[in-house]
Amino acid sequence: MTLHHLARQTALQFPEVTVSQPFGNGCDVFKVMDKVFMLSFHLEGKAAINLKVIPDDGTMLRDIYPYIRAGWHMNKQHWVTVYEDENLDESLVQDLVQNSYDLVVEKLKKVERLRIEALKSIPSN
To answer: Which InterPro entries match (predicted)?
Structure first.
């Protein structure tokens, strides 16, 4: 599965996620309650995604995985860029997308967080 397809599929499972292209074709912006948690784009011909991280986690991830670097065009402490790679760990990508979503949800207003929790508790078909 390609990086973009895996990231999109993972992100769209979460409540209140919207996707738009405010920067034009070629850059999908994923938001929860109007707050960005993922960008999906191509850079130098390679698929890439930007994800929010805890700063210490970002440092560790960059040290361990050669396909994870400082966030392109983002705050380098709080964002990482994951590039398409033949050694890409799919479960790691899914975890990083989930963690990015959760980090953004943590900062939402209480009423928005409660809405998301309520939507998560509804069984899916």
So the answer is: YjbR (IPR007351), YjbR-like_sf (IPR038056), YjbR/MT2646/Rv2570-like (IPR058532)
